Amino acid sequence: MSKMGENGAANCHQHVALAPVEVSVELGFQHGASKCFDDDGRLKRTGTVWTASAHIITAVIGSGVLSLAWAIGQLGWVAGPAVMLLFSFVTFYTSALLADCYRSGDPVTGRRNYTYMDAVQANLNGIKVKICGYLQYLNIVGVAIGYTIAASISMVAIKRSNCFNKEGDDSPCHVNSNPYMIMFGVAEIVLSQIPDFDQISWLSILAAIMSFTYSSIGLVLGIVQVIQNGGIKGSLTGISIGTVSQMDKIWRSLQAFGDIAFAYSYSIILIEIQDTIKSSPSSEAKVMKKATLTSVTVTTIFYMLCGCMGYAAFGDLAPGNLLTGFGFYNPYWLLDIANAAIVVHLVGAYQVYCQPLFAFIEKWTLKTWPKSEFITKDIQVPIASGRCYNLNLFRLTWRTMFVIVTTVVSMLLPFFNDVVGFLGAIGFWPLTVYFPVEMYIVQKKIPKWSTRWVCLQLLSLACLVITVASAAGSVAGVVSDLKVYRPFKSS
Predict the structure, then answer these.
(1) How confident is the model at residue 212, as a pLDDT?
(2) Which residues cross the membrane (predicted)?
């Protein structure tokens, strides 16, 4: 950005900081899309196809990538890659439908829908809005729990690898994951005080770089393992009956569907990401579709490489977390780097997912108690170079409590694979398929029982069947884990 651009942006931010919200909105509408304000009176959006792609990649290439070798191991060389390609296509297609719902009416000048719930409200109304809200925000809470578990697993892996390297391969090196979950929670408490989605682009870009780092390390180690094995492991149909029982084969295959669904899950924050994109020269929907195509293509290539190479390296014994399959020894430093990259990535991904929930709760409380100073008053805290941070006591309190609760739940239920599969299952059909399809039908006025309407409904029905089956498989996995699980026990 040029010096002039930086000064302009700084002046805009300064103007907004000094003016009340009502004045800012009024000025914005008086001047239309001025140099400081967009057509809706909000501060000028600056997002591009690259920042949107960074947000999506941060959300998509999460810890889910590490479970893909295990998922392909359950399904085999034929069904595994085929299911992955199927989910990538469905995610891209329904995301494109959802992007068209950002504005109501005209795609360039129509009224903006700032959140997923706003889009549902504008197009569907009624009880569906409440159902969408409960599902979206419950899924976000679940993702926060899943990411806390995944981050602690990586931190424990670093600790154990260093212990084995120092004490010897025969050392027990028991490590309790709870302190590491608490450390992750403390970091999230600090970062959750970033007020808005617009201000975490730097965190998304850093997290996206980290995701490519650990995915690449996993890929390289998989290739090396295949070379050491002298060939490719695995079979066309996946883990064989005999290695596991017939019922376990069914449950694990269904859970694999949930794991893959989770690996592509980001629709719940798509509208919020789109709301950061600048309006010109293209409409936000066109930019978002480009970002979605770029991101889904890149992530699918990475997923295919990491998942297939992990299965080729370990075959039926492919681990739930790919990096743990390489042991804790050689090269331990490279695995440490990969696990550290996972932790940094998950720190950012947690914020990308949770910011919409933060914004929703704060908007609701402001509307419910507009005269409460605890909720509305900002305290200016000097930081550096004459700049101030607006500390809001309600934001500090409630976001801190949210992180604490998700951390405690994570400490009670550290079942990474089953949690990932269940989250992917319950969120996939309603949020990634059903609501985007229904909103698109209403927005484009697609006639009932027309060919297009029937095809969209068949897509939705097929995804519903997959969701129900995947959820059942994941629940069976959780029940099985609970039989032998002891809370707060060291691993």
Answers:
(1) 80
(2) 52-72, 78-102, 137-158, 202-227, 291-312, 332-353, 396-416, 422-442, 454-479
CA angle centred on 429, ends 428 and 430, rounded to 5° = 105
DSSP state of 198: G
CA distance to 45, 77, 345, 486, per residue, from 52 (Å):
12, 33, 16, 41
- Contact partners, residue 57, CB within 8 Å, separation at least 6: 204, 208, 211, 295, 298, 299
Distance CA 146, CA 333 (A): 25
How many angstroms separate the Cα of 92 from the Cα of each of 60, 99, 292, 293, 421?
A: 12, 10, 7, 7, 20
Angle at 173 between CA 414 and CA 155, to 5 degrees: 45
* Alpha helix ranges (H) inside 369-431: 373-376, 393-412, 416-427
Whole-prediction pTM value? 0.77
Residue 230 to residues 146, 223, 314, 384: CA-CA distances in angstroms?
A: 36, 11, 12, 58
Q: 258: closest CA among 75, 412, 77?
A: 75
pLDDT, one tens digit per residue, over 272-328 is 888 888 877 778 889 999 999 998 898 888 888 888 888 888 888 887 777 666 654
- At 73, list the tokens: 């191991």
Residues paired with residue 103 on neighbouring β-strands, in sequence order: 112
What is the tens place of the pLDDT at every residue in 71-114? Answer: 898 888 998 899 999 888 988 999 999 999 898 877 777 888 88
d(CA 63, CA 310): 15
Q: Scan for tokens 């994951």, then name that residue.
A: 177
Superfamily in which the 48-372+399-482 domain is placed by CATH: Amino acid/polyamine transporter I (1.20.1740.10)
CA separation for the pair 258, 254 (Å, rounded): 7
The residues, ordered by sequence, that sit 6+ positions from 317 with a Cβ below 8 Å of its Cβ are: 73, 325
Q: Where in the chain is the domain with CATH 1.20.1740.10?
A: 48-372+399-482
In three-state secondary structure terms, 37 is strand
Rounded distance, CA 460 to CA 139, Å? 19
Tokens 């996206």, located at residue? 208
Rounded-to-integer distance, Cα 339 and Cα 336, Å = 5
